[in-house]
Amino acid sequence: MNTQELIKIEDDYFINTFTRQPIVLDHGEGVKVTDIDGNEYIDMFAGIAVNALGHNNPQLVKAIQDQAEKLIHISSIYYNEPALIYAKRLVELTSFDRIFYANSGAEANEGAIKLAIKYTGKSEVISTVESFHGRTIMTLAATGHEHYHEPFKAVLPNGFINVPYNDIEAIKEAITENTAAIIVEPIQGEGGVNIPDVNYLKEISKICKENNIVFIVDEVQTGFGRCGSLFAHELFDVKPDIMTMAKGIGGGVPMGGILATEEVASAFVPGDHGTTFGGGPLVCAAANAVLDVIYEEDLLANSKEVGQYLKEELEKLQEKHDIIKEVRGCGLMVGIELTTPGAEYVDKLREKGFLINCTAGSVLRLVPPLIIKKEEIDEFVKALDETL
Questions:
Q1: Most buried of 37, 102, 219, 264, CB within 10 angstroms?
Q2: pTM of this prediction?
C-alpha cells in the first residue's frame, strides 16, 4: 500500500484526535528514520523525547528480543526479575526510596497526585500555567492550558489551582490550609521549553517543607539524560518528595513510574493503587538496557555537550534572522521561539529531511536522540538557516 492509501485508513477508521505529519515511517537506524517511500529524515524529535537511544539500538533490541522469548506479561500479582533489578538500580541512582511502575506519564502523574492526597489528607493541588501533566481528567485539571480544559470543564475536579510558572509569589498566594501538593516541571516542555530561575525549585521545596506540602517534580519529558543529567531537578540541587517519569525510560516501549521518599510512599497500602501492565518484564528489560547504554556510552555528557553546541549554533542564527525571538534550552531539550507561528517551518524542514515539532504556537521544539552528534546538528542548522 502507498502513503495515501495508508493515511486513508486512518481517515476512515480512527477516532479523530491527532493532526499527523503526512508521512508513514517504516524503519530507523540511529538518529535517522525512513518512510515507506524511501525518504530519509534526521529525527530531531525522537517520538516526543522518547527514543533516547535513537532507533534500532542493538543493545535495546536484543534485551527486548531475549525477554520476549521468556515472558512478556505476568501481571502485578507475581514478581519478575527485570522489574526488581531496575527498581534497585534507579533508587540507588536517585534521592528516592520507593518506586511504582506505570504505563505512561499521565498515569504516573495521576498516581503521584493520589499519593500526595493520601499522605497529607488534603485535597488541593497547585500547578503552573503552560504546564502539561497528562490527558486523564485529573491530570488534565493539573495541566495549565485553558484550551485543553474547555471541552471538559463540567467534569474537571475541584481543587486544582494554576499559577504562573517561575513565580514564587504566586505560589505563596495560592497556598491554603488544604494544599496537598505542588506539581511542577523542572523545565516546561509542551509550554515552550521554558526554563525557570536558578532558585525557583529550591524556593518551592522550602515552601513545601514549611507548610507540610508534597513537592512533586514531573520529569516525564526532562528525565533520563534529556537535560544533561539523569534528571533535570538535579541541576537545581533539590530533593523533591515525589518524581514522575516516562518517555525516555524505556527507549520507545510504553513505560512510566513514580519515585517517592520512604515517608511519603508509606501512605499507600495494598489496594490504594495498582496496575495490570505496569512494571512488566518486557518493559523493565528494555528500561535496564536503556540505563546500561546511557552510562556505558556516557550519553549524559553527550547530551550536555552537543546540546550546548546546538544552542550556540542556533544563537548564531538568531543574530542573522530577526524572526528568531529567543533560543532557550538545557541539554538536548531546546526551543526556538519565533515571532510568527511555527507550523509552516515544521513542514518546510520535513521537506528538507528533518523531523521537528512546534509547540506553544511559535516554538520549534528540538528533542533529538541522546546519541546525536555535532555533524548532524550542523546539517540541521544549515537546513534551518536556508528555511528561515
A1: 219
A2: 0.97
